[in-house]
Structure formats: structure tokens, C-alpha cells
Amino acid sequence: MVEEERTEELAPEAAAVQAVEEAPTEESAARIQALEHQLAEEKDRLLRMAAEFENSKKRLAREAALRQDYAEESFMREILPAIDNLERALAQGQEGGAQALLDGVELTRQGLMATLERLGLSAIVSLGQPFDPHRHEAMTVEATDELPPSHVLREFQKGYQFKERVIRPARVVVSKKGC
User: Fold this and answer.
1) Is 162 left (phi over 0), alpha (psi -120 to 50) or beta?
2) In what order do the strands lie in the sheet with 160-162?
3) H or E segment at 46?
4) What stretch of H or E contains 175?
5) What is the DSSP string of 107-173?
6) CA 144, CA 147: separation in Å to the nearest integer?
7) Phi/psi class of residue 155: alpha, beta or left (left: φ > 0; alpha: ψ in -120 to 50)?
8) Tens digits of per-residue pLDDT, 8-60?
9) Up-side HSE of residue 143: CA atoms within 13 Å toward CB?
10) CA 10 from centroid of its chain's CA atoms
11) Element holding 177 (H helix, E strand)
């Protein structure tokens, strides 16, 4: 009886909503089924996207590994002309003597340096420059009046940098004040 009184108190619209909620009609059942179908399609699409993403990650990892394995290929291709020139210099040295060999080796050195410079390598200019521990390795110190103290007097071995990074410091003799 209490339930009947409550229903009477509800507005006619609220009673209609309550009736629909309590007993699903064919229309609401169809709507639920359509939403469930749409949810299933969205789940399937999401799973496919996740699988596609994983496949892309694996493909990118394989491609990165290949790039790393063959990164030096272009460098090797650039160096081949220097090897060819060395072989020609050796052949000329056998035919033309020591001067022809020296000329061939010098041309090869110039060609090799030009190739390396194109790729970003440069020699560190040291002679007469202030000593820089980031670019120079002091092998010895020598007293002199030719240069101010802590300047590079001589080079034992040239230093090189690749782009902005020193890959081998120059081995140098550093000046100190003469006696």
C-alpha cells in the first residue's frame, strides 16, 4: 500500500520514466544491443591500433639496428679513392723511383684529408697557440724566448677534432720563460 501511495505522488512523467526503467521495451533493448555492438567494434579497433603500434615499434627497432650496422658504409665508400690512389702511388714508385712515390703518397694524403674534412674532421691548429689542455697534451716543457710562456712550441703529433669534439689531442712541446 505504501508503494501505491508513492506512485500516486510522482508526476505522470516520472512514473513513465520509472516504468521504462523497470521494464525494458523492445526499443531500449535494441538501443542496448546497438551500444554493445558499438563497444565491441571500438574494443576491436583499439586492439588493432595497439597491435599496429607494437608492430611499428618492432619495425623501427629493426631499421635502427640496420642503420647502425651499416652506418660506416658511406665512410668506407668515401675512403676507397684514397686506397686506389695509394695503389697507384706504389705502382708509380716501382716504375718512376722515390720522387714519384713521394708525390703519389702526398697526393693521396691530400685527397684523404679532403674527404675527411668533407665528413667533418679537421686538424687542430697548435703551433704558436696558447696551450689548451682540452685540445693539447703536453709531452714536455721547453725554455725559450721565441714564444710567451704556455704556448705551443712544437708538435709531436697532430690533433684532430670531429665537428666540435676533440677526438685526439695534439701532442705538443709547451714553452716556458727562457733562463
Assistant:
1) beta
2) 121-123, 160-162, 165-168
3) helix 26-69
4) strand 170-177
5) HHHHHHHHHHHHTTEEEPP-TTSBP-TTTEEEEEEEEESSS-TTBEEEEEE--EEETTEEEEPEEEE
6) 7
7) beta
8) 555 555 555 555 555 567 888 889 999 999 999 999 999 999 999 999 999 99
9) 3
10) 71
11) strand 170-177
> Residue 177 to residues 88, 135, 141, 149, 152: CA-CA distances in angstroms?
48, 22, 10, 5, 13
pLDDT at 5: 52
Tell me the per-residue pLDDT of 100-147, one tens digit each, with 9 for 90 and over.
Answer: 788 888 888 898 899 889 889 999 999 999 999 999 999 999 999 889
Count the Cβ atoms, other than its own, within 10 Å of residue 74. 10
| Residue 105, all three cell numbers | 703518397
All cell numbers assigned to 7: 506512485
- Find cell 629493426 and name the residue: 62
Q: pLDDT value at position 98?
A: 79
Strand ranges of the sheet holding 170-177, from the earlier edge strand across to the other edge: 136-144, 170-177, 152-157
* SS3 of residue 91 by DSSP: helix
CA angle 155, 158, 160 (to 5 degrees): 145
